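Review form for a predicted model. The reviewer records the input and the model, then writes brief findings.
Reviewer: anonymous (R2)
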Amino acid sequence: MAEDGKRLYEGLFLLDPGFANKDPEGAVALCRHVLEKHGATVIRSEIWGEQKLAYEVRKNKRGAYVLTAFRAETMKMGEVELECRLTERIMRYLFLNREGVPIEKWFKRYEAPVRPPRREEEPAEAAGEPAAV
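Model under review:
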């Protein structure tokens, strides 16, 4: 724990895609404002962009993500969560205690694994019949 009594947290916000697409800087500023309003010190914040969601959230099939690194007092995190619930443009949020983990490690962009191309199988092998020699 730091000398000032604050811990390092990672915050991931899921925002309304209409708002985030029109004003990406405003989306990041909204997340910073929510945190700083309750005494948190924002270290780094960036928008990850819009993505399709696995299920609808508040009738939205897509959402924009904002990742933040900040220091805050543990006792103030309940107030931050309440503020997130009351802010209409924030659809979901997740806060993790990241004390001891380097920031560069969790700000790395997600890249989907590359899959090898599918093999075309012959119809005889697919049906379970031995191939003619």
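Findings: The first strand starts at residue 7 and ends at 15.
Further findings: Helices lie at 17-22, 24-37, 77-86, 103-106, 123-126.
Recommendation: see findings above.
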